[in-house]
Amino acid sequence: MRKLILSILSLFLALAGFAQQIKVSGIVTDANGEPLPGAVVMVPGTSTGASTDAEGRYNISVGPKETLEFSCIGYATKTIPVEGRAIIDVTLEDDSLMLEETVVVGYGSVKKVNLTGAVDQVSSEVFAGRPSSNTTQMLVGAIPNLNISLSDGKPSRSADYNIRGTTSIGGGGSALVLIDGVEGDPALLNPDDIESVSVLKDAASASIYGSRATFGVVLITTKEAAKEAGKFNFNYNGNFSFLQPTNLPDIVDDGYVYASLFRDAYYNYMGVEPSGMNTSQEFSQAWMSEFLRRKEKGITDEVAIDESGRYVYYQTHNLSASGSTDKIDYYLSGRIYKYDGILNFNPDTYFTTSLRAKFTARPTEWLTIRENISFNYDKNHIPAGSNQTNNGIYLRAMAAS
Question: Could you tell me if 134 and 112 lie in one domain?
Fold first, then answer.
């Protein structure tokens, strides 16, 4: 009889405890009012929890005196007491510290402590204050095991991105580079626009990008507008630098002497007389005889060479503006880079300008419009060499008759 009474009493207590549970629902949003899918809603110290759907909505059954903890990657955790309420809407603020610990991968972003794949990431600090002409050159040595091969030091030079060392026998292979999810050339990107660069090194990236990820993936994410509504940001930075050649070759400034040496070198190597010095200048013994006659008559103009070399000036100007309202976010940036060239005659000049505009509009609760437009203009003057390459560039640039 006693056992029966205790069993009935326990049942009543359990029913009473269950009756105290209430259903709590609501929406989790960010500071701009955008829903946060995948946000976690938990009762601290228990296994009771739920997650938000694609519209940021959640439902959970808890006691009226419990406390709910709301968390999401990239946002500060917020704890709110239930206090018998059936509807609790929550706004999570950005957590800059947590964002620094978040790594962008192909399918989203994860915290470094939860990251299992072979991924490396650098932030915009790598590019700050460096006067290099393009992003590719700035990434050299910045990320472990990312091998960047530049054929020369031209300001406009792009590169091959190698992640896993030797990729194939004779075939080579370069990593897939994506800028905001679209394949592009980092050499055309304004370094000041970059928020982060992630490198996916292991074969897991092939599950997202398929065969294009055979040699690895480089993900470049550009900056977004300021997240705080009603805030306007304006940034400008510029630098003015110069360089000077450390060693100048002994230049042949006599055209006939150069032509004679060219003929001797060509004949000794090829065993035949040359037919031309380059794509525009024919060569023959009659032409050499006429060249000698003009030199002896003084019909020639020699180029005066400044043996001290020259300074080369280059400058960079970066300008960006961003802002945010309840309905609109925008980010605008522009860059000008100018390089005067190191050659005295027919210099190797380079000029580039780039523009980027990112815009997000939320005209209604169910519609979001985004655009990301970039424009780049390059003007690169590369003097031709003696054999369609740049092998004779100094002779043609610093000495001519």
Answer: yes
